[in-house]
Helix-turn-helix domain-containing protein (Fibrella aquatilis), 290 residues
Amino acid sequence: MTNQPDTQNAEANSSELKLKGFKVYAVDSSVSRPHLYARRDFYKVVLSTGHLLIHYADRSLELQGTSLFFANPHVPYSVERLADLQTGYACVFTEEFLKPHDRSESLQQSPLFKIGGTPVFLLNDEQRAVITPLFQKMLAEQDTDYVFKGELIRTYINLIIHETLKLQPPDGLVKPQNAAFRIASLFLELLERQFPIENPDKPLTLRTAQDYALRLSVHVNHLNRVVKEVTGRPTTAHIADRVISEAKALLQHTDWSIADIAYGLGYDYPTYFNNFFKKITGASPKSFRS
């Protein structure tokens, strides 16, 4: 029996994933070292059979049998194999791949992915028989030349999500209790509630870590510390990522002028927005839209 951290990360091609937005692979520790991505900016769903210990934020859960694990890139996690044999499937994807035209609710607010939600589900034989073929179909489909395979794989991922929402969480899941976890959760929920921007005349009101700290009645240094502790990323990175995501959606799916988009996102001058967007994405808003 082994007790080693999950070190699958270096095996996969992150640039390929970034290009396509998804990657599906089989997990079989008896045949080869399983794949996992070193970068943690992708969502992941793992169907696994084995004896595992999952550490997710400030809680841990020992699993034996078949389970589904939903990993959020905003929450640090690690997996230990407590026995040599582990089999199953995994799908890694970006939020943009799963929700290409939907600006309503981020995956961070999904019951399966949000902080404080239930990321792990134990499956019985009947449930495993429903979920396993969906991973197998994705695995077979991703290497085909079918022009709509992205849409098909997106459908399979959504089917897995909906089938899982029918399940009851395992009794052994430890609920988070510490204050840091609660504050980080409140910050991410408050961040998400600022979007979508529906009207440029009602611009984003919370733009900086200081703004969020004041709204949450905590010192900005404390907010920065607990967000980094719980999620592994700075407060400013979360804010920037969400603003960029909204900017891309507004550029692609509205006819607002770039000046209106800049104002709607809280920028007094379009030049400031242009510089910020280009710094993060490598492209100007105008070239991204075209």
Q: What stands out?
A: Residues 4-165 form a domain with the Jelly Rolls fold (CATH 2.60.120). The radius of gyration is 20 Å.
